[in-house]
Amino acid sequence: MHQIRVHLAAIGLPVSGDPVYGVREPGLERQFLHAGRLAFPHPFTGERVEAESPLPEDLARLLERLRAL
Looking at the whole model, is its pTM more than 0.70? Predict the structure, then answer.
């Protein structure tokens, strides 16, 4: 996570809510980072492993608030 934050800040795209490299966002208590889907080969079997995760409620609320502006 740290490397993602550093690289994004270096190219002028800081992560919202990042207190070190980004910009504080009112109403956001954490960094706006989320992996909606991950896929990778299993380290022992080589079989593809996939996981999906919906956007957490706090991040979804912030997006809705920003869309209304």
Answer: yes
Helices marked H in the chain: 2-10, 57-67
Contact between 47 and 38 under an 8 Å Cβ cutoff? The reply is: no
Nearest to 2 by CA among 16, 26, 20: 20
Q: How many independent structural domains does the chain possess?
A: 1
DSSP state of 11: T
Task: Please report how many Cα atoms fall inside a 13 Å half-sphere around the Cα of residue 55, on the Cβ side.
Answer: 10
Question: Does the pLDDT at position 61 exceed 80?
Answer: yes
